[in-house]
Structure formats: structure tokens, C-alpha cells
Hints:
Elements: H1 6-38, H2 41-67, H3 81-110, H4 119-146, H5 149-174, H6 181-209, H7 215-229, E1 236-243, E2 246-256, H8 261-279, E3 282-290
Amino acid sequence: xxxxxxxxxxxxxxxxxxxxxxxxxxxxxxxxxxxxxxxxxxxxxxxxxxxxxxxxxxxxxxxxxxxxxxxxxxxxxxxxxxxxxxxxxxxxxxxxxxxxxxxxxxxxxxxxxxxxxxxxxxxxxxxxxxxxxxxxxxxxxxxxxxxxxxxxxxxxxxxxxxxxxxxxxxxxxxxxxxxxxxxxxxxxxxxxxxxxxxxxxxxxxxxxxxxxxxxxxxxxxxxxxxxxxxxxxxxxxxxxxxxxxxxxxxxxxxxxxxxxxxxxxxxxxxxxxxxxxxxxxxxxxxxxxxxxx
Length: 293
């Protein structure tokens, strides 16, 4: 598959973001209506969860717009990490929502409050499950096309909403046998949102702090470099720095001590071009002589 250009990636992120905003605002209104009518804290919490999806989609759009800006004097590696910052914002928003739902559910359980679910709540919850899972699949597709972590985070945001709606739907059907189930459902929803928040925040933090390349990436890097050179290079001191859609990689290679500078420069250039073509990394390579002892 041909790699997407930055403009194409930006368009995918915009399209996903705007569709997400429209669907989530609609779902927020419907679920809030059903929640107020039934007196369900779980449904009202789920409504705010849907609205928070809209806010996270705004973060996706803004992050994609900023990350698409070209490099300048103040940002020589581009603005790609703006998209990662947008991902962190989504994660923090989810964490705050999870904590709010947790407190509200504990209060409802302690006061013995019950909800009065009806057919309307069942219909709205069922519609939510379908729409939110479809939105999650679309966001995950966008992530695979662009590599934008914010789209992946938004996908998990949608998925957590779909799962929480499944939990609520199950609770509605057993509420006749367990009248105070609404508060406990709120706890489950809070836990699901909190887990999604944790995964999103830790993933974005790893990208910002820098993470060691995994075994698969290292093996592919060595294969590409040594295939381009035509002989073993003994790659070491490998560092990868991700800036959204732009990735810089630095490493050392060993070349024969008697090799001429011009020849070694040509080999390095060939390796850099191969890495750019096969891995889409901008490589900076330092050469060291092979010392025979």
C-alpha cells in the first residue's frame, strides 16, 4: 500500500473528527433525555461520556492541523508531537470523567437511589452501541492509514463508550431483580473509562519520553541496512525519535579501518536512502573503524 501524504493523513483525521462530533452531540442529547426520564446515573454518565468524545475529536482535529505544519527554525523536526499532545489531552479528559462517575455512583449506592428504566432507555442504549462501535472501527481504520496516535485514542474512547452502553443495557434487563443496580453500573462504567484513560496516557507518554525500539523494528533495520551495504555492519547505539508522522533514527556502524572516506560516505548515503524508502525514517549514521586485535 502506498504511504499516505501528510495532506491525505490530515484529511482522514479531519473527516473522522467531524463525523465523530456530529454523532456524539446527537447521542449526548438522546442519552441525557433517556437518563433524566429514567433517573439513571449510569445513563447520564454515559451521556457525558459521549459528549467528551466530541471534545476529544476536537483535539484530534486541532492536533492534526498543527502537526501538519512544516518544520521551522524553532521546530526543526516539525510539529508532529502536537498530535501526541492531543492524545494526552484525550486521556486526561477521560480520567476526569471516570473520577466524576465514580463519585456519583458511590453517592447513589450509599443513598440507596434507584432508576426507573423503560423502553426508551433500551432503544437509545442499543442505538448507542451500534453507532459507537462503528465510530471506533472508523477511528482505528484512520489510525492504520495515518499512524496518528490521537485517532487510536479516539477509537478507544468510542469503544469504551460502546462497552459501557453494553453494560448498561444488561443492567436494564436485570434491574427488576436488583433495584439498586444503576449505581453499580456507574462504577463499572467509571472503571472501563478509567482503564481506557490509563492506556491512552501511558501510550502517549511513551512516545513523548522516548521508548526503546522493539525487537521486530531492530531486526528489520539491520536487514535493510546490511542489504543496502552488502556486508555486516554491526549496528549499535540505536536511537529512534518519533515526532508524529516524522521519525528520526541514529545509530553507529562498523566499517573496515582502511576504507576511504569517499567510499564510506557512499555506503552511508546508500543505507540512509534504503531506510527512508523501506522504513520512512530519516537516518543519521556514524561510522566507526573495525579494529583487529
